[in-house]
Design a protein that fits this description.
heterodimer; A: 20 helices; B: alpha+beta; four-stranded antiparallel beta sheet; 32% helix
């Protein structure tokens, strides 16, 4: 028997499977008689579809089915709705949501939008058929920049949505903020861009669908992060079938990062074709098409303003941002630049007043949906960049100004001007501890050494405060099998994070049973009646608590059984460390013995946990860089993090989350960038041009956890760990580079900080326009 | 990918004959360009003629005067060759720095220079080291071989068999990698020929322009005074340089100056006088 406990660095059960190539990804699944699908995608960012001729393609040997957007609608297929929580804007404005069919019907509104769907005997035949479909396009003017999309003369993407505006949202205290700005000694303003990026999971999206005529049911294996919510939308919204007739399963998913959360058009088209043809259909996206059709993240242009006194005390924060969400609302597209980025404005600092305005704007690009952090990295970046900028502009010490304004622990609990319930934490402690880890003496020595080598040394510290999100309900089901194994099925979803280890670890620790006896199931609509899947760092917070709650219910059921075995009274029996005991008699019996003695099914438990209030993970990042002034090349030389995720279930897995998030943040800060040209063609359509970070640019990281403030918002006291790495790393990296360049007068640069940009900033001695973007639309 | 016929001839003659018999043949060396291009549908040859079955086409021999590398020698083999490392360490280092381990395990010298990608590393080495490219028909000097973007002096159906490189007094390659692709945004190969080979200084630049080229003004300056300081203020005209999202022509021109100095510093600072490094 393998004993495990909460807080133990249990090694990942799933690693052996993954590392020996025995994972089951979508392309590993092949069904008898399976046909292959391909998607014809629009080569234009904006074009009217005048006619589609499929005659030649249909005549091609092996082609089984071709369907166009018009035919799709004629078949009675419905649209995919947005689930954004923000639906009301300023002045009582309603969210504007255009219809989203699985294919363009009359007009293609982004490069890569599906125009026709082909199924053939082989992938080659399906691909060749794509070339034979003749589409008569009338190209229309496209708009790519969300600021330009708001201009009065901008191309209109939807006839009935004037100004390309999906929603104009605000949050906070406008009057109080205006007053703070009037009274402040200084007001510092900076326009900045949070660059558009995409996740590039190593497994592209794909699915295999089948239909069983005898039972009128569908099965869908899909590389998704959210089987229940997407099942509901595919079934009820698009296909018009009872959701219970669609069995939706995500086997091993090779990375998601939010990009696989939403409802994409291809799976319902696969299911439609499977029924129509009476045979299974497989579709696997190519890497090239992934760049065109996966959702993007970030992509905001903002004006950030800080009001402060001469002594550096913060008085107010004002942010106005415009997010380009693509041509549709997608699954939760409008949320990120509005509510998603508003909530954690101001970070862990005491801001008496804050106001946030966020506009979600339609543009002719691939859709926007959550990407690791979904608004919190943006908010932290906005907050930390304006603080750093103000410090440079006003000659204040960037470390001191932060230290001075952090919320002290005795000011908690605190309801922030953005509505966050900040219940517990010790932000100054984490800040000081991070500084200590970086080592002030060591930093000085490194700076001197870099100088001797003709390189520029930079350091930055970036406290962060974020919040969890995602579905508030989660289900955990536990079954005790006759062979001694224990089934654990949950509705939360790991796409590589290690829930297959952490959740059985929780159950085994709480019940005192063998960790290795637990058989874990996730992401299967037949295994759990509900499931919130992935998103918002909810894995331990909601999924973990569901497991803990189920364990508690199992113990309750086991007490009378234990009392019977102990020939005692249930009221006298206590449970600790896997053992039931009666203190008066001194007799005891283990959970394993109770399980063995129980009637089949007697202890089986299904439990639904519902989160009350979202948690507030927080922490502090620090980074050092060296810049080669001759070339502008940036090298990260050190990285330190203190995180307050509340209770740590498994520090090894938490480390993995922190490191992965930081790596993605480093990628965005230094090399990643989605670039379209003005006509809407994608310049960064492959890994030759889209700069994913490689292992050699990621520095060693020293990670510490503060467990002195477990949250009382949930029984486990966990706060969520999945996205924090991404939330803190953007400002840590960017501000460290700017610190390296301070002697050259450089106080602002836009991500990614490519060598040429850094070199040019040095040449230009930091010349920049602090109000360069928002201008007329602010 | 379109259907094609695949052949793996066992001799050079059979390969030439197979090409001659095909209306639309394509030689396959390591396939690091050909295969992706075919997968993307940008090339659809009727006949793919794989050169990997021809014996001895990957042989490496090093004498006191010449490094001779068979066209099918992989980057990994060149990078790992102790003989090459002794003779021209910069060449071994360059090969060991191409792409990633998978690319180096398959990619070949002949394939690389026949493709003449404007951002490839090998063309810079060949041009700076004054290599002679031998084909099934003739010998071609590197100066005559590289004729433009993806263009070479090779005729239809001509097969590179080996490359002969004179052993030089010193050489170094300095490369600045594109952060996304890791191809050279700019790469500068500097070679000091030995007296038997004329003693000249040759500087070849890759990554920046439409094809590899010699930086003649740098060569002139370095011939007179072989030091990094001598390169101060010597610029390279950026007129036909590439400008893209990764680097402007102006930045590439600037990088060439920085990299040339770094290559020269490596050569002048190296204890064994042979230079090396990236």
């Amino acid at each position: 028997m393998t004993d495990v406990s909460i807080g133990q660095a249990v090694r990942r059960t799933e690693d052996e499977r993954f590392l020996t190539g025995r994972g089951t990804y979508i392309d590993d699944i092949n069904m008898d008689g399976q046909a292959r699908a391909a998607v014809l995608r629009s080569p234009h960012a904006h074009a009217r579809i005048k006619a589609i001729d499929t005659t030649e393609a249909e005549a091609l040997d092996g082609v089984l089915l071709i369907i166009t957007g018009q035919q799709w609608v004629a078949e009675g297929m419905g649209t995919l709705p947005t689930k954004t929580a923000v639906r009301k804007g300023r002045n009582d404005m309603d969210l504007m949501e255009p219809p989203r069919h699985c294919m363009a019907v009359d007009t293609a509104r982004y490069l890569g939008e599906p125009v026709a769907f082909v199924v053939a005997e082989t992938q080659d035949a399906a691909n060749q058929a794509l070339d034979l479909i003749e589409v008569d396009y009338e190209p229309l003017e496209a708009v790519i920049d969300p600021i330009k999309a708001l201009a009065p003369d901008a191309p209109q993407i939807w006839d009935d949505i004037p100004g390309n505006l999906s929603i104009d949202f605000e949050l906070g205290d406008k009057e109080g903020t205006d007053k703070a700005f009037e009274d402040a000694d200084h007001v510092v303003t900076l326009d900045l861009i949070n660059n558009r990026v995409t996740a590039v999971p190593i497994e592209p999206r794909g699915c295999v669908g089948s239909y069983d005529a005898a039972t009128d049911t569908y099965t869908l294996f899909n590389s998704t992060q959210n089987v229940h919510a997407n099942r509901d939308m595919f079934a009820e919204n698009v296909l018009g079938i009872d959701k219970n007739t669609l069995h939706h399963i995500a086997p091993d998913v090779g990375g998601g990062f939010g990009v696989k959360n939403g409802a994409y058009p291809e799976p319902p088209m696969v299911l439609y074709a499977a029924k129509k043809l009476g045979r299974p259909v497989k579709w696997i996206n190519t890497r090239s098409d992934s760049f065109l059709s996966d959702t993007h993240g970030r992509g905001q242009t903002s004006r950030v303003q800080l009001a402060l006194n001469s002594d550096g005390t913060f008085l107010g924060l004002r942010t106005s941002t415009v997010g380009g969400i693509g041509a549709y609302c997608w699954t939760v597209g409008p949320f990120t630049p509005t509510g998603g980025s508003a909530r954690t404005q101001g970070g862990p600092y005491a801001f008496p007043a804050m106001h946030y305005r966020g506009r979600a704007v339609f543009i002719n690009t691939a859709p926007m949906d959550p990407y690791r952090g979904a608004g919190r990295p943006e908010a932290t970046f906005q907050t930390e960049r304006i603080i750093e900028y103000a410090a440079r502009k006003l000659g204040l010490d960037p470390v001191e100004i932060r230290r001075k304004n952090l919320m002290p622990p005795d000011s908690l609990p605190y309801k922030s001007p953005m509505g966050m319930d900040i219940d517990c934490g010790d932000f100054p402690h984490l800040f000081e501890r991070t500084l200590e880890m970086a080592g002030p003496d060591s930093l000085k020595a490194q700076a001197e050494k870099a100088k001797q080598a003709g390189r520029l040394f930079g350091f930055a510290i970036a406290p962060y405060l974020e919040c969890t999100g995602g579905g508030p309900k989660e289900y955990a089901g536990v079954t005790f099998n006759p062979d001694g194994t224990v089934g654990l099925a949950v509705g939360s979803h790991s796409t590589g994070m290690g829930h297959e280890t952490a959740l059985p670890q929780l159950l085994a620790a709480q019940l005192g049973i063998d960790f290795e006896s637990i058989q874990f199931t996730q992401a299967d609509t037949a295994a759990t009646p509900l499931g919130g899947g992935h998103g918002g760092s909810r894995g331990m917070e909601v999924g973990g608590n569901a497991v803990a709650q189920a364990a508690g219910e199992i113990i309750e059921k086991a007490v009378p059984l234990a009392a019977h075995l102990l020939q005692s009274d249930a009221a006298k029996v206590t449970f600790e460390n896997g053992t039931f005991s009666d203190a008066t008699s001194g007799a005891s019996v283990s959970m394993n013995e109770v399980i063995e003695s129980a009637e089949p099914g007697a202890l089986d438990t299904g439990s639904t946990f519902e989160r009350g209030v979202i948690s507030i993970p927080n922490g502090c990042h620090a980074a050092t860089v060296e810049v080669d002034p001759d070339t502008g090349a940036v090298e990260l030389t050190g990285y330190w993090v203190m995180d307050d995720f509340g209770t740590i279930i498994n520090p090894l897995l938490a480390d993995g989350q922190v490191m992965g998030g930081i790596a993605q943040g480093i990628g965005q800060a230094l090399t990643e960038n989605i670039v379209y040209d003005d006509s809407g063609q994608l310049i960064t359509g492959s890994l030759m041009d889209y700069g994913l970070p490689r292992a050699d640019v990621i520095p060693n990281m020293e990670i510490g956890y503060y467990e002195g403030a477990p949250t009382a918002k949930n029984p486990l006291g966990v706060k969520g760990a999945g996205e924090a790495g991404c939330v803190g790393s953007l400002p840590a990296v960017v501000n460290a580079v700017l610190d390296a360049l301070k002697d050259h007068g450089v106080v602002h640069m836009e991500m990614p900080l490519t060598p040429e940009k850094v070199w040019r900033a040095i040449q230009d001695k930091g010349a920049h326009d602090p109000e360069g973007y928002m201008g007329d639309v602010n | 990918m379109e259907d094609f016929s695949y052949q793996k001839p066992k001799s050079l003659k059979d390969a030439v004959d197979a090409f001659g018999a095909s209306d639309d043949g394509l030689f396959l060396a390591g396939g690091q360009t050909v295969i992706p291009v075919m997968k993307l549908g940008l090339a659809a040859p009727a006949d793919v003629i794989d050169l990997s079955g021809i014996p001895d086409l990957g042989a490496i021999t090093v004498s006191d005067t010449t490094v001779s590398i068979g066209a099918m020698a992989t980057h990994a083999a060149v990078g790992a060759s102790e003989d090459i490392r002794q003779a021209i360490p910069a060449l071994a280092d360059l090969a060991a720095g191409i792409g990633d381990p998978q690319v180096r395990a398959r990619g070949t010298l002949g394939g690389s220079i026949a493709n003449n990608d404007p951002a490839a590393d090998y063309p810079a080495a060949m041009l700076a080291l004054n290599a002679t490219i031998t084909t099934d028909k003739r010998d071609i000097t590197a100066d005559d071989f590289f004729t433009g973007m993806f263009e070479t002096a090779l005729e239809e159906g001509e097969i590179i068999t080996r490359v002969d490189i004179p052993v030089v007094d010193a050489a170094a390659y300095a490369k600045f990698a594109n952060p996304a692709s890791r191809f050279a945004l700019a790469g500068v190969f500097v070679a000091q020929m030995n007296d038997e080979s004329g003693g000249e200084v040759r500087v070849a630049v890759t990554g920046a322009g439409p094809g590899v080229f010699r930086a003649e003004q740098m060569e002139a300056v370095l011939s007179n005074d072989f030091s990094a300081a001598a390169l101060e203020g010597v610029s390279v005209a950026a007129d036909d340089f590439n400008s893209d999202i990764h680097a402007s022509a102006e930045y590439r021109a600037h990088l060439i100056g920085v990299l040339a100095k770094r290559a020269v510093l490596t050569m002048t600072g190296a204890a064994n006088g042979k230079g090396g490094g990236q």
